[in-house]
Design a protein that fits this description.
By secondary structure, this protein is of the alpha/beta class. It has 24 helices and 24 strands. The strands form 8 sheets. A 9-stranded mixed β-sheet has the order 3-1-4-5-8-9-12-11-10, with helices on both faces. A 3-stranded parallel β-sheet has the order 22-23-24. Helix 2 (42-52) packs parallel to helix 7 (179-190). One of its GO terms (molecular function) is catalytic activity.
């Protein structure tokens, strides 16, 4: 690998600008993250993309907002615009945990140090830039702006906020993945079109003044949603908005959305079609150094970079549409897959890095096993309004073949410098169960599962059933927990057949909308019965632009407008979460008292039996022993039936 020079990175200081021989800049990007020049870090992708258009681009990573604001003026004013992003994660997620406590580490900062990213970073940066440079356009992008483009609930301030365009005073917002709209923005500006006149580009949003004329576009239909002021007065109106927003965000022929915000009008243009293979290949093959900027060499490693340093992203998008997840809201539900050739070229680059030891940490994406999956008949997808392609059932038009992915894994492993490639991204285990994925070839599903288990797992395979309660899972847009039982059966058979010692590690969520204490008690009992002591667990965190968050704030499901209860108090949340850890001595008395109050002796007998049980934690051999009746799944037994009947009577 050639030795890199400082000028191989985008410039971050005046000195670096001068090294390139530039006397002015076309675009300056401000980011809440440290600058890592890698294709999985959004600011680097946008910077390299703009550079490929022939623009002179600089990036100001993690500008200081607590001094004289020198970072916002040191590079002067760009000729075209400022670009602003809060970073690869919403800054409030980066800064706080589910209990609103400050985190002690920031994964996107050298050494994991905190204090380098302000709360609501996109708004903070944008307001400063508009004060310092009022005549220079400010364009917002990234996940914080994307998911806050319309009236949204902010969990950390416990308020309903207007579009981030209003609070930030920015001129335009690009939502989703920004390559396609930015290309058109730059093209028009280079033709001399004033930024204020660029209002009809797909996948952008602008806030029009009261006296502004609504731009016409004969190709688009329009829809108006309840105003921000109406949402403040009526939670049901706010909830009803979301169905329109989500459906239009996921349609290939979407309507333009309008919303009144005070005396202004928010206009959200329809999204671009999913990126083609050539387009996404081109984005991943821009001239990244794949390394953090040298300015961080003495500050310590950047945790997020260390995690993905030797990983390969093979696609974008997720058609799962989970109610608590923001991936499809930002990346879209349609999958944009890279060509095998592009992936292998990146593998070769990584394999030739000086500190590569032969192990790729991940060959994946938002969901590892959605590569190359798309509709069989495109015209059906063109008309689809469903937010998920696999909930409540897998769409009969969805091609869920895992063969291209299995072939890709084998091609990657054939590289002479690759000793082993791991699958670190989450795998949709439900799509590997023939009883759920009824249109797939069962042998093909088994071949993929066996390929992953025998060659791409280091001791533990992580999957995300999320819950055991069917009503909660239905609201989550996840399949019945019975399919996790089915998957575990196949997992155990392969474990034994191949003489492996792999562990299955399931993820679960507590205090999700519709979840009651008894649901968590049942989750604890059912997973214990399967031989699990849970460790990969989390409490539900309401993030902007998800169904679950809309329910959390409003109390209504946006698609049915029926009331749904959600645990909200700290006490309720802590108690639900506590059931995950039934095996800890400090929880046993509390569990006994709680289940006695609920009249759930059946669950108490499972979690804390009076007699000493011969119970062992789920072992990697697949030969777990229980004292319970293994022949009958827990969700079919009498105590589960009793549990359901009690809920029905309530």
């Amino acid at each position: 690998m050639e030795e890199l020079k400082l000028s191989d990175w985008l410039p971050t200081t005046n000195k670096e600008v001068k090294i390139r021989g530039w006397d002015a800049l076309d675009v300056i990007l401000f980011s809440g993250d440290a600058y890592v020049d890698h294709p999985t870090f959004g600011p680097a992708v946008i910077g390299r993309l703009l550079e490929s258009f022939g623009l002179r681009v600089a990036i100001v990573p993690q500008p200081n907002v607590n001094d004289n604001l020198q970072d916002f003026v040191k590079l002067g004013a760009p000729k075209l615009f400022f670009g602003v992003t809060g970073g690869c994660m919403d800054p409030m997620i980066s800064n706080y945990n589910a209990n609103k406590k400050r985190r002690d580490k920031d994964a996107y900062t050298p050494n994991g140090d905190i204090g380098f990213r302000p709360d609501y970073a996109t708004t903070v940066y944008s307001k400063i830039l508009k004060e310092k440079w009022p005549d220079v356009p400010v364009l917002l992008g990234g996940i914080e702006a994307s998911l806050r483009r319309v009236t949204h609930y902010d969990y950390w301030s416990d308020t309903l906020m207007p579009t981030i365009l209003e609070s930030s005073k920015a001129d335009m917002l690009v939502y989703g993945m920004g390559e396609q709209p930015l290309r058109e923005v730059v093209r028009l500006m280079q033709k001399g079109v004033p930024f204020s006149s660029i209002t009809t580009i797909k996948q952008t949003a602008v806030l029009l003044d009261a006296d502004a004329r609504i731009p016409k576009n004969s190709n688009w239909e329009d829809v108006e949603i309840a105003s921000h002021e109406m949402c403040l007065k009526d939670k049901k109106k706010y909830a009803s908005n979301f169905k329109i927003i989500e459906q239009e965000s996921n349609k290939l022929a979407a309507r333009r959305i309008f919303q009144k915000v005070g005396d202004k009008t928010l206009m959200i243009n329809p999204p671009y079609p999913t990126m083609t293979e050539d387009e996404i290949d081109a984005s991943f093959e821009l001239p990244y150094t794949r390394l953090p900027h040298p300015k961080y060499n003495k500050r310590g490693p950047i945790p997020a970079f260390e995690m993905i340093k030797f990983s390969i992203n093979i696609h974008r998008g997720c058609f799962g549409g989970c109610s608590f997840c923001t991936i499809s809201a930002h990346q879209g539900k349609f999958i944009a897959s890279r060509s095998q050739e592009s992936v292998l070229r990146e593998v070769d680059k990584v394999a030739n890095m000086p500190d590569f030891k032969g192990y790729l940490s991940d060959i994946g994406g938002p969901s590892a096993n959605m590569y190359k999956m798309k509709g069989k008949v495109q015209s059906i997808c063109d008309k689809c309004v469903s937010p998920s392609c696999i909930s409540p059932v897998i769409c009969s038009n969805l091609d869920t073949s895992h063969k291209p992915l299995t072939d890709l894994y084998q091609a990657v492993d054939s590289h002479p410098k690759v000793k082993k490639s791991f699958i670190g991204s989450g795998i949709r285990h439900d799509m590997l169960v023939p009883e759920f994925n009824k249109n797939a070839d069962p042998k093909e599903l088994d071949d993929y599962t066996e390929e992953v288990m025998t060659k791409h797992v280091s001791g533990r395979l992580k999957v995300a059933p999320e819950h055991t309660s069917d009503p909660v899972l239905k609201l989550m847009r996840k399949p019945s927990f019975s399919y996790f039982h089915k998957f575990k059966e196949r997992f155990d058979k392969i474990n034994i057949k191949k003489g492996l010692k792999l562990q299955l590690i399931p993820y679960f969520i507590s205090n999700h909308p519709a979840c009651e204490a008894e649901d968590m008690a049942n989750l604890a009992a059912e997973t214990k019965d399967m031989g699990f002591q849970l460790e990969q667990v989390q409490g539900f965190t309401p993030t902007p632009m998800t169904v679950a968050t809309v329910i959390y704030y409003s109390g209504y499901h946006p698609y049915t407008l029926k009331k749904v209860r959600t645990p909200k108090t700290r006490k309720e949340k802590d108690e639900q979460h506590r059931f995950f850890f039934w095996y800890k001595d400090e929880n046993k008395a509390w569990i006994k008292n709680t289940l006695n109050k609920l009249g759930r002796q059946d669950l108490l007998d499972v979690l804390l039996p009076a007699k000493t049980e011969k119970w062992r934690k789920n072992k990697p051999s697949g030969e777990v022993k229980h004292t319970f009746d293994d022949a009958v799944p827990f969700n079919k037994r009498k105590n589960k039936a009793k549990f359901r009947s009690k809920k029905k009577r309530r």
